[in-house]
Design brief:
The protein has about 425 residues and is an alpha+beta fold. About 45% of the residues lie in helices and about 15% in strands. Helix 1 packs parallel to helix 8.
């Protein structure tokens, strides 16, 4: 393929596009370069997801935020009457279709995502003889439009557009071909941004769920280096009463308990080494803390803390003098299990049998057993008793009788 006169410029644009995918604040400078590369003054790119403003996104360059916000209500109200969109997406017998300038094949290509310029779709008279042009486009000098749909599904609509003023020349087919080449990368960049945004939403939700846990929770690696401490754990660690942090690491004051914690973290998650409990005496003479050390299965939490390090462990700190309780959401967030599995685990932590769990959840005993089997594999246990102890470690206030931490300092395998 022979070199294109725009190749050097477009290579620079690609770098900006993918930088913006990772940092949405960079879309402004990227769009400034994109508009300039096409001889325009305005460019915008956006993702629209119905009923999800948190993931919807719009960035534009060339019009001030105040001007754009002032025009946005009218633009939104009038866009269904836009003769460009009418000609592309309306019924073949719609009156405006008689002013169409391109072939039916070309219209189908545009519907399929090909870039297009406004004057190949509608005449000058039809373009200007509409309320959208009079009230929005003309005041903003959006005379010539080059656009491309990047994604259109029932759930996502993403597009890019570039505009030139009335003093510039119209866009042409070469501009369309160039935007098509760049459009592939714009689509990929928006897909990357959408995945990163969705992950960030999930990460924030996970952190909020961990903050809501009624017990202290610390996420650490195999060396006891701390990566996350929830509010309850902060309060307990700040007391320096049996367990504390030094140099960003988790320590127990009692040597036997500290040794047990170190060994538990080194073997956490290995086959045959499920959750462990540790009794930690307190200097104040108050009832000993109960620690439960468990591997973290949630990909979101591992990636949030240590870039996916599989050795990440959760250390739950139970103060027997407080009352704590959790629910399925916490189990789902911490262990990376399904909602159905979390519901089963929650009922198991309440000392429910298989038949009673099935009745309470409105499912069959066979279904409950299938969820239990999946939980055994995910959490590295081989029995319901072990599984219950893992769940009770997250909500130690439910522990009684044989589930209580050992009365001797140190650890016992669950």
């Amino acid at each position: 393929m022979s070199p294109n006169k725009h190749d050097a410029t477009d290579l620079g644009l690609l770098a900006l596009i993918y930088d913006a995918a990772k940092d949405p604040s960079r879309w402004q400078s990227c769009l400034a370069e994109l508009a300039g590369a096409f001889g325009g003054f305005f460019a915008q790119v956006g993702i629209r997801i119905p009923d999800d403003d948190g993931l919807s996104f719009l960035a534009c360059h060339g019009i001030s935020d105040s001007d754009w916000q002032a025009m946005l209500p009218r633009y939104t109200a009038l866009i269904p009457e836009d003769p460009i969109l009418v000609n592309i997406f309306s019924r073949p017998d719609h009156p405006v279709n008689s002013q169409k300038l391109c072939s039916a094949e070309r219209i189908e290509a545009i519907r399929g995502g090909a870039a297009f310029h406004c004057r190949e779709v509608v005449t000058d008279d039809a373009y200007r003889d509409c309320a959208l042009y009079r009230e929005v486009r003309n005041p903003l000098d959006l005379e010539y439009i080059l656009a491309k749909e990047l994604v259109r599904t029932d759930f996502i609509h993403a597009s890019v557009s570039i505009c030139r003023s009335a003093l510039s020349r119209p866009f042409d087919n070469d501009d369309c071909a160039r935007l098509d080449r760049l459009g592939t990368h714009l689509r990929r960049a928006l897909e990357i941004q959408l995945r990163l945004s969705a992950f960030e939403h999930e990460r924030r939700a996970a952190v909020q769920a961990l903050e809501a846990v009624g017990v202290g929770l610390v996420l650490v690696d195999a060396d006891a280096t701390i990566f996350f401490v929830n509010r309850r754990a902060n309060v307990l660690l700040d007391k320096r009463d049996g367990i504390t942090r030094r140099d960003a690491r988790l320590f127990c004051d009692d040597p036997a308990a500290d040794d047990a914690l170190s060994k538990a973290l080194l073997t956490c998650g290995e086959t045959g080494n499920p959750a462990r409990t540790i009794r930690v005496p307190r200097r104040s003479g108050s009832k000993a803390y109960g620690l439960v050390v468990s591997p973290v299965s949630s990909t979101v939490l591992r990636t949030t803390a240590v870039d996916g390090d599989s050795s990440l462990s959760a250390v739950f700190i139970h103060d027997p003098e407080t009352v704590n309780d959790v629910g399925p959401t916490i189990y789902r967030t911490l262990f990376g299990i399904t909602s159905a599995q979390a519901n089963v685990l929650n009922e198991l932590a309440r000392a429910k049998g298989t038949a009673e769990i099935a009745a309470r959840l409105g499912v069959s005993v066979h279904t409950v057993r299938a969820h239990l089997k999946a939980l055994f594999e995910t959490l590295g246990v081989s029995s319901q008793a072990e599984l219950a102890r893992v769940a009770l470690g997250v909500a130690p206030s439910r522990i009684s009788g044989p589930h209580a931490p050992s009365s001797a300092t140190g650890t016992h395998d669950e």
